[in-house]
Design goal:
Blueprint (H helix, E strand, L loop, with lengths): L9 E4 L3 H12 L4 E4 L5 H18 L5 H10 E3 L11 E4 L5 H12 L7 E4 L6 H5 L8 E6 L8 E6 L5 H13 L3 E6 L6 H4 L1 H12 L5 H10 L7 H8 L1 H14 L10 H8 L34 E5 L8 H7 L3 E5 L8 E3 L5 E4 L13 E4 L10 E6 L5 H13 L3 E4 L8 H17 L5 H12 L5 H8 L1 H14 L9 H13 L1
Parallel strand pairs: 1-2, 1-4, 2-3, 4-5, 5-6, 7-8, 9-10, 12-13, 14-15
Antiparallel strand pairs: 6-7, 9-11, 11-12, 13-14
């Protein structure tokens, strides 16, 4: 371990919500902590706020009274930057403006010793650029905490182009010593979480713009079928539409307007209208007094068929015949190996197929219903169905009834390629695989970051490994055929992995 000495002093510059949280983490870990803010009196106010939070920890039994008293004694607001001259680590949490951060660190270089470690908590600016103004840029590393810092375990440890390996290791080990879960990553737009999470929001917003379904239904499908903690519409209302849209736009511009990161016009209109989510009283949903959240569209009860045929391999949905048999539906299996796709056949000949990235409406037949991907078909409580345009109503009712018999609520959406969960997961997997291939972070760190940073039910690379790269490639090719803009073109890592899987068969 090369963490800074437990008795070493930590300085936190910038005493807003994030700065206070980081200071609390260092303080509880046993360090003396100095607080500095350019605004007169703000550091002292922040110290009082941190002390109040320590009192609440004692009330909740998470901290003893003697531990609180000792922590209070280690907390020191200072009124001048020179007051941090003797510290071992400075963590900056000031305004997200490059000039402000560069000015701070260049001033700090004239104050602290040459052995002091510099860390920026930036979430959107290049660490390389922040360090670019320094005489010794190798000492600066990114330490991106997630808000609220005392509660969330993830810390992204970001190495800029000039960051010394020793500095990055010290920062990593220090975060680990503070009880956090650090992950290493290169200095790339959005780092790990904000880069790889973009499709989670972007695909939902695009589905809304295409009128595939409404926000409440898309959220419900991603939660109840995909296993995500929150849907993208409710989550961005919580984050703030202005904040989320700004991050998306920053990543898109940093990648020279790569179509994979294209912002949403619908979200831009929300921001322009001042509908920023919970903090403004309205975003995708209303939050004012008496506001009621719209319910997801759920199909009315329908009668299930007495029996179905199951043909070929259903891939990720292979458990469905077992669930149907358990529900008392007669299942006739046909394992013909020559079938190009597995499907469930209703008595009238309608084919139910797991989405492959293409629409259900084809020139070959009007008797198709696509169903969406689920994290776990046994535990999922909702399934989305997309019927072909000419499907008879009675056929759709039979398909709905089939899944209702399995204990699922059913949301019928418009016939869009890739549906909801499948296109989201495929895009997350593709962006994550591309990031790993480009050395942004190790695959294990990417999965850890996405589970801890944004509460994904599985890391995207773990999920892709379970589904198979060939499945991810199929979804993306289907989407690329429908939208030939480059947005959905599979990354080289996904293409190569799909070939490798085939060679291993």
């Amino acid at each position: 371990m090369t963490a800074i000495d437990p008795a070493g002093t930590v300085a936190v510059v910038g005493t807003g919500t994030m700065g206070q949280g980081i200071a609390q983490v260092a303080l509880v870990a046993g360090h003396p902590v100095k607080l500095y803010d350019v605004a007169p009196g703000r550091a002292a106010t922040a110290a009082d706020a941190i002390t109040a939070r320590l009192d609440r920890l004692v009330e909740k039994g998470r901290l003893t009274a003697p531990e609180r008293d000792a922590a209070r004694g280690r907390l020191h607001p200072v009124t001048e930057l020179a007051g941090v001259a003797d510290v071992d680590l400075v963590i900056e949490a000031v305004l997200e403006e490059l000039g402000a951060k560069q000015q701070l660190f260049t001033a700090l270089e004239t104050v602290v010793s040459e052995h002091c470690l510099f860390a920026t908590n930036t979430s959107s600016l290049p660490v390389t650029a922040v360090a670019g103004a320094l005489i010794h840029p190798g000492r600066l590393v990114g330490l991106h905490f997630f808000n609220p810092a005392p509660l969330l375990p993830l810390v992204e440890v970001v190495s800029g182009f000039a960051t010394d390996e020793e500095a990055a290791t010290r920062a990593y080990d220090t975060a680990a010593a503070w009880g956090k879960t650090p992950v290493r990553c290169a200095d790339t737009p959005g780092f790990i979480v904000n880069r790889i999470a973009r499709p989670f929001y972007a695909e939902a917003f695009r589905l809304y713009e295409e009128r595939a379904s409404d926000p409440a239904t898309i959220d419900a499908v991603l939660r109840e079928s995909g296993g995500f903690r929150m849907g993208p519409f409710e989550l961005t209302d919580l984050i703030g539409q202005d904040v989320n849209e700004a991050v998306t736009r920053s990543v898109w511009e940093s990648f020279f307007q790569d179509p994979k990161f294209t912002p949403s016009m619908a979200q831009r209109r929300l921001v322009e209208a001042g509908l920023h989510g919970r903090k403004s009283g309205r975003g995708w949903f209303g939050y004012g007094e008496g506001a009621q959240r719209p319910e997801p569209h759920t199909a009315a009860p329908c009668e299930a068929p007495a029996g179905v045929g199951v043909h070929g391999d259903l891939g990720p949905a292979a458990v469905l015949p077992e669930l149907m048999a358990e529900a008392g539906i007669k299942v006739n299996r046909d394992r013909t190996p020559l079938l190009s796709e597995g499907f469930i056949a209703l008595p009238d000949g309608t084919r139910l197929t797991l989405t492959d990235g293409s629409a259900a409406t084809t020139d070959l037949s009007s008797m198709y219903v696509r169903f969406d991907l689920a994290l776990d078909y046994r535990s999922a409580t909702r399934i989305a169905l997309a019927p072909s345009d000419a499907l008879p109503p009675e056929s759709l009712r039979a398909a709905v009834g089939l899944f209702q018999a399995l204990g699922k609520q059913v949301s019928v959406i418009d016939d869009v390629p890739g549906m909801i969960v499948a296109r989201t997961v495929a895009m997350l997997a593709d962006v994550a695989a591309d990031a790993a291939a480009r050395g942004v972070a190790e695959p294990e760190d990417i999965d850890t970051a996405m589970r801890l940073g944004v509460n994904y039910p599985r890391g995207p690379l773990e999920w892709a490994s379970e589904l198979g790269a060939a499945w991810v490639r199929s979804i993306l090719w289907g989407l690329h055929d429908a939208y030939p803009t480059g947005r959905y073109a599979p990354s080289q890592r996904v293409l190569r992995r799909a070939v490798a899987e085939r060679e291993l068969l």
